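#help-structures

NK: newbie question. if I give both the sequence and a SMILES, will the prediction place the ligand too? trying with S-adenosylmethionine
OV: yes, paste both and it writes out the complex. here, I ran yours:
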Amino acid sequence: MLFRTRQRIKHRVKELIFDNAGFQEMLELRDRHRLEDAMGFRGQFDEHRRFQIAFLREQGLVPSSRFLEIGCGPLTAGIPVIEYLETGNYVGIDVRSSVLDLAWKEVGKAGLAVKNPRLIRSSSFGSPELGAQTFDFILSFSVLYHLNDDILKNYFETVRNRLAPTGVCFANVNTLHESSTWLEFPFLRRTIEVYKNLAAENGLTTDRLGDLDKHGFRLSGAESRNELLSFRIR
Ligand SMILES: C[S@@+](CC[C@H](N)C(=O)[O-])C[C@H]1O[C@@H](n2cnc3c(N)ncnc32)[C@H](O)[C@@H]1O
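OV: that's the protein plus ligand as structure tokens.
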């Protein structure tokens, strides 16, 4: 009995230290930095999330849309998209298992297991995992400039095969900022023509939608000058 009382007091003292030293805030900040490092933009997570779901809804996303996110990262867009869509309509693909581990945590924190999202770790954009599945919307945000030329070719083949006949794929690209690297990936500057030609080779038309800031992106960093493209089956 005395042992249990001692244990309870010890636990309570630990809780008081934890609360008063602001450990909870520190843990939350550490989690936030992990997420931001996984999506590549320190201090920009909330705006990237807000922008992507607002843009998708502006482009006609409805709860019954079947949605594929290629390069879903830690579900920056994924969480509000999963929340908005009907159960079972979200599939996210990423090449890194570490980022999908974070993504699953986010699903749990948001209480979204009930929506049955599917997350796939793949270096072949979900082939063969997705079988013959097609989608109304495909999104790749801050992804295409991290794909080398060979992978980009596979990307457009995938988009052609995964789009439903009236479906649409959205992606932003970098035409201005010098090429460099990010983590294990390249960061590439390409002209719009490069994307247009590769899309055309795979039977897709490209529309130029303008820069992110034209669509209401609220930050002034380099990505606000990324151009948004859409791809549809010809
Ligand atoms: C800059 S992050 C953006 C993540 C997310 N779209 C967002 O808006 O936060 C780029 C993501 O693309 C993923 N990626 C890079 N190459 C990929 C590939 N070949 N297949 C699938 N995902 C890839 C990376 O692992 C990373 O999570």
